[in-house]
Amino acid sequence: MARELAAVVGDAAPAVLESDLIRDGFGPERWFDCLVAEAPNQLVGYALMCKAFEAHTGDLYVRPAARRSGAGSALMMTIARHALQLGCHAVYWELWRTNVEGAAFYRTLMAEEAADLAVMCLDKDHLTAIAAGPSASI
What is the pLDDT of residues 51-79, one digit of tens each? Predict the structure, then answer.
């Protein structure tokens, strides 16, 4: 489903392996929680959630055939409950500006754009350069 989400928003397919997801989502030092939405005999959506001082939802995706079935609302309700159990005061996530349908869904939940935040990114080449220290050329 992560590949489906990437295709929907015009992003490159994730370069993550199944073994990475198992290690990082279910291992002793897990990075995220994975929530799923199910319909009879099939997965129809998922959300990845990380905890900092607030919760951060990395992905939330519901397959087109399952949209407007309550799957997205159920995922958001579970995210809200989980975040409160973790002691979080807010949940943040990124939304591709081209995802008009997603924005409309989030507005029905009373979500607001965090106007004071910008999404920042360092790609692997820049991470490598920074990690190498001040003598590296960035």
Answer: 776 777 878 999 999 999 999 999 999 99
Q: What is residue 109's three-state secondary structure?
A: coil
User: What residue spans define the domains of the chain?
Assistant: 2-131
Check if the beta carbon of residue 1 is closer than 8 Å to that of residue 45: yes
- Which backbone phi and psi does 32 adopt, to 5 degrees? -150, 165
Nearest alpha-carbon partner for 45 in 61, 34, 59: 61
pTM above 0.85, yes or no: no
Using CA atoms, how far apart are residues 113 and 111, in angstroms rounded to an integer?
7
For residue 57, which amino acid is it? Answer: T
Question: So what's the architecture of 2-131 in CATH?
Answer: 3-Layer(aba) Sandwich (3.40)
Percent of the chain with pLDDT over 90: 29
Q: CA geometry: angle at 95 spanning 57 and 54, to 5°?
A: 30
CA 21 to CA 35: how far, in whole Å?
13
